[in-house]
Please model this.
Amino acid sequence: MKASKTSRVAVIGGGIGGLTAAGLLAKEGHAVTLFEGSPSLGGKAQAVTVEGLTLDTGPTLLTLPALVRGTFEKLDALDLLPPFTELEPQCAYRFTDGCGFTAYKDLERMADSAAELRPGERKGVHSFYAEAAAIWRAAGEPYLEAPFEGMAGFMARVARRGIGAMLAGMKLDTLHTLATKHFQTQHLQQYVGRFATYAGGSPYASSAAFALIPHIEHAYGVHHVKGGIGALVEALGQAVRRQGVTVHLDTRARFERTSEGYRVGPGQELFDSVVVNADPLASLRRESEPLSLSGFVLLLEVEGRPSLPHHTVLFGADYRREFDELFAGKLATDPTVYFCNPSATDPGMAPLGRTGLFVMVNAPAMPLGDSQAEQAGRDWESMAALVRTQMFDALFKHYPGLRGKTRVVGQRTPVDLAARGAPGGSIYGFLPHGRFGPFRRPRIRGGTPGLFFAGGGTHPGGGVPLVMLSGRFAAEMASAHLRRSA
Model:
C-alpha cells in the first residue's frame, strides 16, 4: 500500500541491505535518498575485473534463491535479475592426510563420499542432516520469519511449532559437540565446524543452531550468479534507481536526531526516518564487545583452465588450535584455505585459456583503538607476505600442477575491510558465541523512533540472502513507523 503522504527517508550505506531497504521504501511511495561513502555500491559485496578476469572480493555463493528472487519481484525488477546456476557438487573438501570429502545436494551421494572416509560415516550424514533439519524447523524458521525484537516474540513463534521444537532448542550445545555426536572422523567434524565461520565464529564456541546453514545448502542448494555476486549488486542498484531512489556516491553521511526529525549530512537535510546500512555496534555503544573474524584474500590468475571445483576448502591439520590462535589475535600457524573458481561454472568470468581464483583464509579482527589500529595496519604490510606463502603452500600441496602457473593480481587484507566500514576489519562485526549468541545480535530497530539498521551486522546475520532479508525487515518497520507518525 502506498504511503498516504510522502515521507523522506535517508538510507546511509549502499550495501545489499541498504539497497534493498531503499528500493522497497521507494516503492511504498516514500522519497528515499541513499548516501554511500565509497565510489561504488555493494558494501563488502564487491567485484573487480583485472586484465579480463572478473572475481568477487566478498561473498562468492548464493543460498535461499527464492528469497533473492522474491526481493527482485517486490521491486518489479525480475527482468534485471541475473540467472542462477545450482551447483552439484556443492563443495570439495581436502584434508592434510590426503583424504577428501565432497558435499552434494543429493544426500545419498554425500553419504557415499563420507563412507569413503569410514563406512560408519554414511549413517552419520543421514543422522546429522535429520537433526539439522529439526534445528531449522525449531529455531531457524522462527528466527528468520520476523524481525527479532526479543525472546518473548521469538519463543511464541517457536511454540507454534510444538513442544518438541521448544525442547530441541533448549538442548542445543556447541556446533562442535553436535558434530562429534554424529561423526567419528576428524574430517567430518571439521566439515560441520566450518559452518560457524559463516558468522565469523569458532565451532567450539558457536551454538549448534548454526547447523541450519548446512541444512539450507542441502535443502535449497548452493548457487552461482552469472557474472558473480557483483552482477547481482549491479542489478539491485539498477532496480533501486528505477524505483526513484536518489543515490549519492562518495558521500559520507552522519545523522542526528532533532525535534523535527533526523538531520543527515553533509547537507543537513531533514528526514523523517533513517535506515543505517553499517555495522551498528558503535551506534549502540557496544564497540567493546568481541568481534567476529576478518579475512585475507588473494585474487589469482592461473594459466589454462585446470580442472578445479567451483568451491574447495583445504583444511589445516589442527582445527581447534587454528581457532584458538585466531581468537587470541594471532594468525593461524596452519590455516584452512578456501578457494572459489567461478569459471568452472561460468566460463565468461575469465578469458579463454585463463582462470581466476578467489582464495581466502580467516584472520583475526584488528584492535579498534586508533593507535592500535594504525599499528595493526602497518603489521599487515609484513604479515601479508607470510599469509600468502601459507596459502600457496596449501594450494600447491593439493594441486601441484598449479605451481609455476599462478600469479597474484590482487589482495584484500583486514585493513581494506576496515576502510569500507567493517569494525577492525571484522566481516560480520558482532561475534555470536555462546548458546544464546545469535539472540544478542544487534536488532534492526534502533534506540530512537524512526531509526533502523540493516546489513550483516544486525539481525538476522551475514550472507547475501540474510542481508537482503534485513533490508526487507528494515523497510517494513520504517514504513510502519511512518504510517503511525503520519
Observations:
- Residues 192 and 364 are 21 Å apart (CA to CA).
- Residues 370-398 form the longest helix (29 residues).
- The two ends are 14 Å apart (CA to CA).
- The mean pLDDT is 94.
